[in-house]
Amino acid sequence: MLAQFTPTWMINATYDINPQQLKQLGVKVVLTDLDNTLIAWNNPYGTEELREWMTALERENIQLVVVSNNSHRRVKKAVAPLQLPFISRALKPFSGGIRRAMRQYHVTKSEVVMVGDQLLTDVAAANFSGIRSILVRPIIESDAWNTRINRFFERFVMSAMRKKHPELKFRKDLINERNK
């Protein structure tokens, strides 16, 4: 049961994910959750650090695509200042949103990675889709009301997962990590 919630990598922050390392790993498309992964759920404008990371991805010819459970209207409004493509109503942890993005960008499972801050939605959706995942720490400590329920259960899953996989720790980069 824990396998469906176990990420490929655990990185401190989304912006710590090195685009050059992604390229070395064959990644052509980065799928990312929106709230508390790419932007703070209560700050739709993002940060300068985000823009620098997006530019670095672009330099490596890696497409960034938001895959969110939020409504089309909410995601469109949030990503408009960033001019990012998106898949809304992804229904994570189910794999439909990820599969839609893979079809749209014509990539194989080995050419895509899912980045998210939640085990029960983002990581599970990646695992159900057969792709690699990167669990990141949430940008801010507070969550929208609907995410707080997931966080409650996630604490138990994370505790059990760390007992089974003590090598899984939040780190600064992907290389020299589990499952290269």
UniProtKB/TrEMBL annotation:
Gene3D superfamilies for the chain: HAD superfamily/HAD-like
Entry GO CC: cytoplasm
Record-level Gene Ontology MF annotations: phosphatidylglycerophosphatase activity
Pfam family of the protein (one): Hydrolase_like
InterPro entries: HAD-like_sf (IPR036412), HAD-SF_hydro_IA (IPR006439), HAD-SF_hydro_IIIA (IPR006549), HAD_sf (IPR023214), PGPP1/Gep4 (IPR010021)
Name of this chain's protein: Haloacid dehalogenase
